[in-house]
Every structure is written in structure tokens, then in C-alpha cells.
Amino acid sequence: MNDNDTMKRTFASSIDKTNIGQNLTFIGWIEDFRDMGKIGFISVRDMTGNFQGVVTGELLSNFREIPRQSVIMVNGIIQETRAESFQVEVKVEKVELLSKAANPLPIDPTGRVISSLDKRLDSRALDLRNLRISNIFKTRSNALYLIRKYLFSKMFVEVNTPKIIGSATEGGADLFGFEYFAKKAFLAQSPQLYKEQLTLGLERVFEISSYFRAEPSHTVRHLSEFVSVDLEAAFLEYGDVMDIIEDLVISTIKDLYANYNNQMKHFDDSQDILVDKIPRITYEKCLEDLKSLGEKIEFGEDLSDPALRKLGETYPKFYFIVDWPTKLKPFYILEHEKKSELSKSFDLQYGYLEIVSGGTREHDSARLKNKLQEKGLNPNSFSNHLQTFEWGMPPHSGCGLGFDRFMMILTKSTNIREVVLYPRDTERLSP
Ligand code: ATP
Ligand code: MG
């Protein structure tokens, strides 16, 4: 094989009856070989789909030697087929083995033999040869594209802030620390302070990146490394940010079903995640709802996992929980002027699952300093951040959307590890 050969390859999905009689070359992975003695049928897959090849004569013995999932280059004539799932088939004239696969493989990527998630993650590269799995990651790529497109249309500027930071972003806990030359450094848990600062020069910013939390969680929705879509905008209130998130979530889902249905059909295409509106329910209303469901939570307490699961039965799809108690939210969240025990904050939920947290930010440096103290943090460790509030800091609001959790919803996955290529949790550090 030389470079020219691969340039001349034909993709599996591009052949139809108009190609009958042509001699074409394909490259792909052998998914199946059915040996009927005098005739054999191969199913070969490339990035676009499968084609069927018919093998006869001396070539049959070649194919008997090639293990499944090996890479072959096949040359042959396109002809009519009796197979129902193909329009045409390839009468194989030549085969070249480009890369031989081991036999047996650690998992069966066709999915005929079911493997545990752990085993699949151990062989993730091979796992991607399963059609449903590869479509999870194609959908991930498309969702990122659609989110970027949406935010650009709203005049947001994409930024990249450091992930190696010198001090804890939002308080000391939960950070991975490491040695950085002669200093101590940490992996960023969010871009919170940077994105707020950037509103003073760019007004509207967003960032899509990995963040790191050293929380020893053992759940299906937490990882030590996760991807967040963060946005921050000057002169918007938390209600405006909810409008943006509502529009972003609904339009992304609509667009995926409308334009990428060949991928979405792999995940139960009932389209029940498609909604017209996302209701906004106050934290206090949630407490009332929970009380009537027999779950008593005092004002000021966080909504526990069992409480969120109960709430998720009442509101099984997307809903916002708004106006959380001030004491439950971080120092940078602004409180309501007339009711300081409530904050201008929101979470977007899908059933029990939290997807987004956001709110209006405190932009007055003196009040921010007080807030830090009230939360037991030392304003001196935030001096770099606080000084930017003296440089014409605009009132601003923003949020962070857990992209992996959003992907769980888009692909109807119950474990976050399904939608992350190489997940990191308390146990898993490789591959
Ligand atoms: P939770 O209460 O579910 O642990 P959080 O309130 O601590 O989440 P935030 O700090 O509000 O999380 O982060 C914003 C969003 O980032 C969350 O709504 C969630 O979607 C996502 N997120 C946070 N931590 C993780 C994690 N460890 N793994 C995956 N996604 C996460
Ligand atoms: Mg949160």
C-alpha cells in the first residue's frame, strides 16, 4: 500500500446501484466472516458504515486466516446483492492484510458478547469500534460544536484560562495539589475567578475545558476530571443567564435530532428530552413539594441525594431550582436586596441530576471582601482577584454547565463513565 492507494479508497456508505460493474478499493475492519464452504461473506466497516463482500475460490483460505477486527484493504467489483441490509455488494478480487488483530480480543466490540463497563473502559480504544459507543462520542463532538455555535451567535468570546493555579479558586478544599518548581500549585476546579475578571475586558466570555476535583465521590455522576462549559457575561442578571441556558439546551437537543438523527437513533430515539420550555421553581417551593412527599428539609439545608431523587419524580425532565439560600452558595454569589437570606442563584436539573449552577455575582469589592470573611476565607489570598474589582468591574452573571452530565442526558446514559473516553475516578487512573 502507498499513500495514493488510501486516497483512492471508496467509503462503505457511498456505494449504491449506480456503482454496479465498477472496480473499487475499500479499507476497513473485518467485523464478520461467514464461511459457507464454497462461498464466504465478509462484513467490513469503515468510519461511514459497513459493506458486504463476497469471497470465492482461492481467496477463501486467505480470509479463514484473518482474525476479526483486523484491518484489510479489499479490491473488487460492485454487483447486485440479495442481502436485505445492503443495496449492493463487493465481489472480492484482491485482499491485503494491513494490520492483524489479536485473537481473542479482550472485549467483543460488536456487542454480541456483553462486557462489563470496567472491562470496556480497560479496552476503550477497541470499545469505540461498537457502533453505539462511537456514536456517543460523535454526538459529543457535535454537541460541543453546536454549543460553540450558539454562544458565538450571542457574542460570547471563547477563552482559555490556566488550569495550573497558585492558590485555591473557591476555598481550600477539594483540590489536587502538586509541586510546581519550588512552589505548591493546584489543578483548577473551575475558571470562576478568571472568567469573572475577563468580563471587564471582553464583556461576554465562555470556556470549554477540563476541571479537577479531589472529591472522593463514588457516584455515577462525579469524576475527578470533568468537562465544563462555563460562561460569564457583563450586564446580565441570573434570569438572563437562565434564558441563555434554556435556549442553548433546547436548541442543541433540537438540532441534534434534526441534523444528526443517524447518531441519535442509537440512544432510544423517543426524543422525550425535547421540551419547549424549562420551568423555574424556587428552592422554597421545592421544600414544600418535598414536604408533601414526606421528605422534610429545613430552610437552609442543601437538597440531599434522596431529596433530589424524590424531586426528580415530580419534575422528571429539565427544571431550574432558583433562589437558593445565600449560605448554601459560594462567596461570589449575590444575594437579593430585600431578602438577603436568598441568593440570585440557580441550578438546572434533569430529574435528580444537577447539570448547571449559576447566578448573579457580587461585583462590589468591599462587599466581596466581607463575603470572603463570612465564608471563613482569607481576603489576602484573593488580593490579585480583588484588585480587578477596582478597575471598573461590571455587574455580571454566569454559570457552569457540566458537559459530561449533559451528555448523559443526550445519550440516555446512566453512568457518566459511559460518555467520557478515559474517565478518572478514585480508582481509575489508566488507560
Ligand atoms: P454536585 O452537587 O453534583 O457535586 P456541584 O454543585 O459541586 O455538583 P458545581 O461546582 O456547581 O458542582 O459545578 C457546576 C457543574 O459542573 C455541576 O452542575 C455539574 O454539572 C458539573 N460537575 C461538578 N462537579 C463534577 C464532577 N465531579 N464530575 C462531573 N461533573 C461535575
Ligand atoms: Mg452546583
Jot down its keywords.
13 helices, alpha+beta, OB fold (Dihydrolipoamide Acetyltransferase, E2P), elongated, 431 residues, binds magnesium ion, binds adenosine-5'-triphosphate, 16 strands, eight-stranded mixed β-sheet, BirA Bifunctional Protein, domain 2, 2 domains, five-stranded mixed β-barrel, 26% strand
Q: How does this structure look, described?
A:
The chain is α+β, with helices and mostly antiparallel strands. The chain has two domains: 97 residues, Nucleic acid-binding proteins (OB fold (Dihydrolipoamide Acetyltransferase, E2P)); 254 residues, BirA Bifunctional Protein, domain 2 (2-Layer Sandwich). The chain is built from 13 helices and 16 strands. It has an eight-stranded mixed β-sheet with strand order 6-10-11-16-15-14-13-12. It has a five-stranded mixed barrel with strand order 1-2-3-5-4. A three-stranded antiparallel β-sheet has the order 7-9-8, with no helix packed on it. Strand 14 and strand 15 form a beta hairpin. Helix 5 crosses helix 7. It binds adenosine-5'-triphosphate and magnesium ion (MG). The site of adenosine-5'-triphosphate (ATP) has 13 residues, from strand 11, strand 15, strand 16 and helix 13.
Major β-sheet profile:
8 strands, mixed
Ligand kinds: adenosine-5'-triphosphate, magnesium ion
Shape: elongated
Calculate the terminal CA-CA distance, rounded to whole Å: 31 Å
By CATH, the topology of the largest domain is BirA Bifunctional Protein, domain 2
Look at the structure and name the CATH superfamily of the largest domain: Bira Bifunctional Protein, Domain 2
* H and E order: HEEEHEEHHHEEEEHEEHHEHHEEEHHEH
**How is the largest sheet built, in terms of strand order?**
6-10-11-16-15-14-13-12
Q: How many beta-strand segments?
A: 16
Report strand %. Answer: 25-35%
| Radius of gyration (Å) | 27 Å
Domains (count): 2
The averaged pLDDT comes out at 95
Unreliable runs? none
